[in-house]
Amino acid sequence: MRVLGVDPGLTRCGVGVVEGVAGRPLTMLGVGVVRTAADADIGIRLVGIERGIEEWLDRFSPELVAVERVFSQHNVRTVMGTAQASAVAMLCASRRGIPVALHTPSEVKAAVTGSGRADKAQVGAMVTRLLRLSAPPKPADAADALALAICHIWRAPAQNRLQRAVALHTAQHTAQHTAKGRTR
To answer: Is 158 left (phi over 0), alpha (psi -120 to 50) or beta?
Structure first.
């Protein structure tokens, strides 16, 4: 599985591509940051993020895009910018028919480090170790994007099994109710 991880942000939007399957060594195919000028108009910044994401999609052809789920912060302005960048990444993927998965920061930290409360340095260190890199990717947004991709690759098999089980249960429940309706 090839996953593009996106750590959304208006000034620095981390991007990283990881390939592999759960239980096997993973490979980093690329890592970087899509940058926009903090003093530019918001529309111009969003177009810049879109162009950057589109370039990564063209270059790496991921099977899935994993985006950090926006969570509540005290700084509404930061949340808005993160949400806007996140929406651009989801739009770019969806326009191409590429599935999108959202993961919370604590899910990513727990998957990569074993603790949902890990700090940026711990995430960077584990990403470096898991991908057998010589140094942690810089800035931290780039390492976080790789962590998102790793998280999805590792969690996808369990999530898929859970989704299939829920779908089966729903289908059986619907069939039972349909059958009861016919016997009345």
So the answer is: alpha
- 24 φ, ψ (degrees, to nearest 5): -125, 160
3-state secondary structure of 81: helix
Please say if 41 is a catalytic residue.
Answer: no
Q: Is 68 noted as a catalytic residue in this protein?
A: yes
C-alpha to C-alpha distance for 127 and 143, rounded to whole angstroms: 7
Catalytic residue among 58, 107, 141, 144: 141
Please indicate whether residue 39 is annotated as part of the active site. Answer: no
Residue 45 and residue 40: Cα distance in Å, rounded? Answer: 6
Q: What is the pLDDT of residues 50-105, one digit of tens each?
A: 999 999 999 999 999 999 998 766 778 788 999 999 999 999 999 999 999 999 99
Q: Give 6's strand partners.
A: 15, 67
Helix, strand or coil, per DSSP, at residue 5: strand
Which 8-state DSSP code applies to residue 34? Answer: E
Q: Are 5 and 147 in contact (CB under 8 A)?
A: yes
Catalytic annotation, pick one of 39, 63, 68, 119: 68
SS3 2: strand
Q: Give the strands of the sheet with 27-35, arranged side by side.
A: 27-35, 12-19, 2-7, 64-68, 100-103
Question: Tokens for 71?
Answer: 């969570």
